[in-house]
Specification:
The complex is a heterodimer of chains A (about 525) and B (about 70).
Chain A (H helix, E strand, L loop, with lengths): L23 E6 L3 H12 L4 E4 L13 E3 H9 L3 H7 L1 E3 L1 E6 L2 E7 L11 E3 L2 H12 L6 E4 L3 E7 L4 E7 L2 E12 L6 H5 L5 E16 L7 E5 L8 E7 L3 E7 L6 H4 L2 H12 L4 E15 L4 E2 L2 E3 L5 E2 L7 H20 L7 H27 L4 H14 L3 H4 L40 E2 L2 E2 L8 E7 L10 E6 L4 H8 L4 E6 L5 E5 L4 H11 L11
Parallel strand pairs in A: 1-2, 1-11, 2-8, 5-13, 11-18, 22-23
Antiparallel strand pairs in A: 3-7, 4-7, 5-6, 9-10, 10-11, 12-15, 12-16, 13-14, 14-15, 16-19, 17-18, 20-21, 22-24, 24-25
Helix pairs in contact in A: 1-4, 1-8, 2-3, 2-8, 8-9
Chain B lengths: L12 H12 L4 H19 L2 H13 L5
The chains are: A alpha+beta (about 525), B mainly alpha (about 70).
């Protein structure tokens, strides 16, 4: 069953029908998953925004399909996670083959006690549709403007002015902050003349969605030197609606225009799927790049998602990284607009997400190097790792067909407060709060509105400062104990509005808590070392 | 402080050297390179200690530089 693309309505903007066009707190450029998620996050924090998109349909083609557990937790906080999981194909096992032989498999969520699965596959068009639907729940706070193309940006000291082209002409829109969620080729990035440094990998891939009835497992299957394809590698993924994603490595010499013709694609797919009937739904020929901006905040312009950083698709680190940018940015931008942010808070968005982008780029580059060896000796080692993998377990761990997206732990962040090393590393300051069963259902269901003070086991929390909600769990579940307490009888954990841990103690007083909160709000000098 | 054993550590170095050559006997040059690559991977995993591996890589690399 193919997706039915519906056009979103275009309306003449106020400025072009003689009405006032007041300055906005936030203008978001781009209504992809990143821009839409940001509008919802801001709305949940009471901040209005206007979203400008040059198009008026959701993503054409499935594009980003693999959404990780952490991203689903964020979508759940935004109110769309359960709908996505219900529609998506849940999976957690990846299998890697060399020829016909399986050499390595991984289980991405071997433990129980998490609300969200390791991964779902869901076409980007569904993700965007659900996010647009959710935006419609906030008619007072989110204004979606389709067929509104940003063509110029002028930076002022405390605002930015956008020039926007529409079917009815051009108008000017001022905003305190402009967030560029306008993708890998970001026009806003070009308008500011920013360098986008990194590398291009000399390899071409065919990516194709086919509609087909097949009983292949809901697993990520990757082949090195497949028997059914003359190129170096192949990947197959299941999506909802009997749509299958197939990636085939073609080599650098492949002609992108020739290879994207159905008469070239269909025989290649035929070899992969055998006699099963199928129809080609969408295809694209692409190359890999790994690049990022030096920093993500430039005056009144902020970059999130592919406009700020791009990676190769093997590892699902593009779409997930972008949504995780939003998670980090939403509460900080809201605090800045509402006058609550310390001077270090917005800079910490750039610092923390540059750290995450570097982690994604590192993993993605390593996978790409393994999949597309550049020299004879790189090829030699790669091939011998694959040869050894059938005999020696250690080599299986070196086989790299993509290291799938995991959230960045912001170790060393200027926002991090004290830690108690007696507590488990998985919930240390900087880490996304690990989910666990809680008295009200799932722990994460109650985290993420504002700051939360989690008082676990025997720990007695000090009175919470204004705006901080105390959550007491005197008798934590086994999973919560393992992830948050270890052997300690109790713990007090300060959780940020993006569900990341800010600080934790086995016991603390009000002054310690107040200092940690100050620090997490970017009010502490960045170099200061707190005792 | 160096963690890499640069002093003799094999009881019978001549015997090992002979067995190393023996392992390559009858292989083409490409097959020999592949065997060496596998051997590096196997031994590196056995050593495991990243500081030792880094020192070994640095020593081997230094001798590839001119001069």
């Amino acid at each position: 069953m193919r997706y039915e693309y519906k056009e979103f309505p275009y309306e003449t903007p106020p400025a072009l029908r003689g009405a006032p066009e007041p300055r906005r707190p936030v203008a978001i450029v781009g209504a992809g998953p990143v821009g839409l998620a940001l509008a919802i996050d801001l709305a949940l924090r009471g901040v209005p925004s206007v979203v400008l998109d040059d198009n008026n349909v959701v993503s054409v083609g499935s594009r980003a399909i693999c959404w990780s557990k952490r991203t689903l937790e964020i979508f759940d906080r935004l109110g769309v996670g359960e709908r996505m999981v219900e529609k998506g194909v849940t999976w957690k096992v990846g299998r890697t083959y060399h020829g016909e032989r399986e050499v390595w498999s991984f289980d991405l969520l071997p433990e129980e006690g998490h609300k969200m699965p390791a991964f779902i596959n869901l076409q980007q068009y569904y993700v965007e549709e659900y996010l647009v639907d959710r935006c419609r729940d906030f008619p007072e706070l989110i204004e979606l403007r389709f067929k509104n193309r940003v063509v110029a940006l002028e930076q002022g000291a405390e605002s930015a002015a956008l020039t926007v082209e529409t079917p009815d002409g051009t108008y000017r829109l001022e905003a305190d902050w402009v967030v560029a969620c306008d993708g890998a080729r970001s026009p806003v990035r070009a308008m500011l003349g920013l360098e986008f440094e990194g590398v291009l990998f000399e390899e071409r891939f065919l990516i194709a969605d086919i509609e087909m009835k097949a009983d292949f497992p809901a697993e990520r299957r990757f082949w090195f030197e497949p028997t059914f394809h003359s190129g170096q590698s192949a990947l197959m993924h299941k999506q909802p609606d009997d749509i299958w994603r197939i990636d085939l490595q073609l080599g650098w010499d492949a002609d992108p225009e020739q290879e994207n013709r159905p008469e070239r694609i269909i025989p290649r797919i035929r070899k992969v799927v055998g006699d099963r009937p199928f129809e080609l739904d969408w295809s694209s020929i692409y190359t890999f790049q790994c690049r990022r901006l030096e920093r993500f905040v430039h005056g009144r312009a902020i970059f999130a998602g592919d406009s700020a950083h791009i990676v190769s698709p093997f590892g699902a680190r593009g779409g997930n990284g972008g949504v995780q940018d939003v998670d980090n940015l939403g509460w900080k931008l809201a605090a800045a607009i509402q006058g609550r942010a310390g001077p270090g808070l917005l800079p910490s968005y750039s610092d923390e997400r540059v750290q995450a982008a570097d982690e994604n780029i590192l993993n993605s580059s390593r996978s790409t190097n393994f999949m597309t060896p550049k020299t004879p000796v790189e090829r030699l080692f790669r091939d011998q790792v694959l040869r050894l993998a059938s005999e020696a377990p250690f080599a299986r761990r070196m086989v790299n067909s993509g290291r799938l997206s995991t959230p960045c732990v912001h170790d060393g962040s200027a926002l991090n407060g004290p830690d108690d090393p007696a507590l488990p590393a998985v919930s240390r300051p900087g880490a996304p709060a690990p989910d666990a069963p809680a008295p009200w259902g799932w722990l994460l269901d109650r985290l993420g509105r504002g700051f939360a003070l989690l008082a676990l086991g025997e720990a007695a929390p000090p009175p919470a400062p204004e705006g901080v909600e105390t959550l007491r769990i005197p008798q934590p579940s086994d999973e919560m104990r393992a992830r948050w307490l270890g052997e300690a009888p109790g713990a007090i954990c300060l959780i940020r509005p993006d569900q990341h841990v800010a600080a934790r103690w086995t016991a603390c007083d009000g002054a310690q808590l107040a200092r940690a909160l100050d620090r997490a709000m970017g009010r502490a000098p960045r170099q200061e070392d707190e005792a | 402080m160096s963690k890499l054993a640069a002093d003799p550590n094999i009881a019978d170095p001549d015997g090992f050297y002979a067995r190393l050559l023996e392992a390559h006997r009858g292989l083409s040059e490409d097959e020999s390179h592949a065997l060496n690559a596998r051997l590096v991977l196997i031994l590196a995993n056995h050593i495991g200690d990243e500081a030792v591996l880094d020192e070994a890589l640095a020593l081997a690399r230094r001798l590839a530089e001119p001069g």
